[in-house]
Sequence to fold (677 residues):
Amino acid sequence: MPLSNLNNEQHASATAILGHNLTIASAGTGKTSTIVGRIGHLLHSGIKPDQILLLTFTNKAAAEMIMRVAKFFDETTAKAIVSGTFHSVSYKLLKKSDKPITLKQPSELKTLFKSVYEKRVFVNQTDVKPYDGGYLYDMYSLYLNSSYDETFETWMGKINEDQKQYTLIYEDVIAEFNKLKKQYGYVNFDDLLTNMLELQKENTYDFVEILVDEYQDTNPLQGKLLDGFKPKSLFCVGDYDQSIYAFNGSDINIISSFHTRYDGSTIFTLDKNYRSTAPILDLANKVIQNNPRIYEKSLKVVRPEREHVPQLLKFDELYIQYEYIAKNIVKSKNKTEDMAIIYRNNSSADGIEANLRDAGIECKRKGGHSFFDSREIKVILDLIVLMVNSNDMMAFIHLIEYGKNIGKAIAKDIFEALLRVGHGNLFHGLLNPDNSIIKPYQSRKVTNVQLGLFDDFIEMGSVSKFKDLGWDVKFLNNNILKHPKLTLEGGIFLYDFYTIVKELKRIQNPKNMIIHIQKHKFFETIIETLCTHRAKQKDGTINESIKSSAKLKSHRRVETLKQLSSRHTNLQNFINAMILGGGEMSEGGGVNLLSVHASKGLEFKEVYVVDLMDGRFPNRTLMSKGGSLEEERRLFYVAVTRAKDILYLSYASYDRIKKLDFVFSPFLQEAGLIKDS
Fold:
């Protein structure tokens, strides 16, 4: 029974009567064991596993908890528990309702959003510039997650009053974007939650209890979802001192108002830290005590060891700091996998990684660009997406814009033209076009100055430049080749796409498909383009050594994807797994390079928290854009409490490349490592 290993506080929480229960679980106090114990208690009380909903911050965390439950109960029982992130659970429930879903990464739909935005012409009436398309997309996402039933215009006025003059154009861009998503069945992570809210109005769910991990990081949209399920019992676990996702819409007031929002609620506190040694915990507590105490708590140290006192490292120059850390890691007795370097800003990561590589230290990086952000992986996944749904506009645009002199706009034109000559089916338009449609590119005349819309017109071009290339006659006669801006190189690239599509249509297994893509000229051309770009130097020349290394790295990434695909036999399931779980994956082994946000929930024997300079940590730029010193302090608390045994804190006084002087972080003073001058 999972309850038998719990201490008194954990046991009291795990066996609480059904109702509204909140457990304040500080870093290292065994919240996972408590949640697993709670699930065991519910099952032993006769509650069916499919009446339990477990919501976690990552799918990996959910899988680990379900695996621990399976050790005490049979695997069938454990897997019947509905579990995952808010997004993945919403996806599962939406799929069960037969709602049409084509799940897309936020970065993919940002491309679609930009293509709509770029048709607008802003006539500035003041010195205030409008947001660019990418930033507006992010702001709209933040609005969906963080607003409390207010209009976009009202919310925008609170965020930035100066931008209200462009609200009419912004709202029209958003409306057209949402219309296109609906037309093609696209859904991003925000849509999973908003669509789930609508589904809750049509359905009732008989969850007896909903368990929520990392409750301090829920946002208003997720809060609405929780209430929409109308559970008989709610069991939340979190720590206000680890609330670090305000930039993503999370609201610390959700956890702080729990006892007032739910009458008769009970608050439990886990007060024994099992992770860190006393000196590390003492330092963390000294700093976090400067933040307001929402619920009273006083952590007790279980591990009394004091041989490794947190050490402050001061350096005259930024990169000397990174060099020293690399040398120190070489001398460490800990395994590299048990070590982490944690930074507040992703700009720190490049210098750290370069010095580790130079010292021959293997490392893996998470929290900046993930494995699934690499463009070669996106190319493969987009090709597979098209094999599942040939009319996927975003996958098509992402692939075709790699052709020379083909950008997003031309790629979108070609997509729409293929639908016309294929009578609504892209592959029919590509492989069996209706050549009676002589003008597949239609004129689009729109004028609306108020909404920033102006004329857009296309004239037909000639296909004579493609006559002597030995192409399949069926493709050569396709009138999509008449786009006036389609160059010879662009046409050749498009023909390679035609040939790979013909071949991939015969393959149904994900791994076999990846193997075939890897060998095809279409993919080889893209890899050549990517690696040439990555090896391009400031003077325009290509460093062949860097290019060769880039190709090797691309090959390794494809091999990793191939290994992941071997677990799947269905193309759609493979794609869904890669999209929903992609953000939690990183490449390789060795020392862990982590942003503070990416380090959340992890622990290591030896930790370096670097670049502790005022301005960088705390990040004053982000504070000026709506952040706060309290949030930065919580980030510091999260970073240092990742350390179990050894903790190094470091800063530098000068950056010779940017010629910047630095002052130490105020958190070092609060920790007592730097005395007041």
Notes: The mean pLDDT is 88. The domain at 373-439+459-566 is CATH 1.10.486 (PCRA; domain 4). The first strand starts at residue 20 and ends at 25.
